[in-house]
Peptidase M48 (Hymenobacter gummosus), 279 residues
Amino acid sequence: MSRRFLTLAVALTAAAGLSAAIIKPAATPEPIEPAQGFNIFSVDQDVALGNQVAHQTDSMYQAKGQLMARSNNARAYQLLDAVVKRVLDNGNLKYRTQFPWDVKLIKDDATQNAFATPGGHIYVFTGLVKFLDNESQLAGVLGHEIAHADRRHSTQLLQRQYGIGMLASVVLGKNQGMLAQIANGLAGVTSLKFSRTFEQEADKYSTIYLNGTKYYACDGAAGFFIKAEKQGGGNPPEFLSTHPNPGSRVQAIQGSARQLGCTNRNPGNNNFAELKRLL
């Protein structure tokens, strides 16, 4: 254990009572939203926590035989990596070089979901790719997930959900049970929902990121929500279980895209169609 992480863990644990008072005042029975940008974790702590969550997530889906290996799915990953790289290289990420930003496919056609851990490990279920109609929609959903990581929403949410001291124990590898809870929560297995504020910000940055690609229609994420709404409320995509859908979400994404002037781009669908076939 490095001295820096030990020192930080002690500081975080000591600060837990103070931060709990900030996030959850005694007079308020329900937790209030953390101030936007409030995050007692350092960027290095985001990376350390994300690495542990990614390891747990990999193990979870490997045990189920669902984590798709790059060695056996080279072309599918080549096509997906190209989309991810365009979104990441849009010029507007704060932690483009600090976070690892890798992407992994989970073979589950019944699950229409994607998520990102702290520190930028991205997971995409095959069911989401097969649910979508075009590459701009995929880029839009990926942009949304990348925004959650780059805007550091995940650690802000986890601080509120679990407390600073408990998260510090996870970072130091001392709480495997909570690590499993975090991985399951981000994957949608258990309930761990982003706030309306975080969802709105991730939607907004998705349009900004896609605009920066100069390639994708930057209202791509709206296409997903439109299709999800048409599918009906009886069996909504799992993405909505971890990403609650305010009623004005589609309009907000489309309005942002119109302001940016990037709604009419059409990158073509050949590569996306090939990716769907390969999955």
User: Anything to note?
Assistant: The chain has a mean pLDDT of 82. Residues 3-29+40-278 form one domain. The CA atoms of residues 112 and 128 lie 4 Å apart.
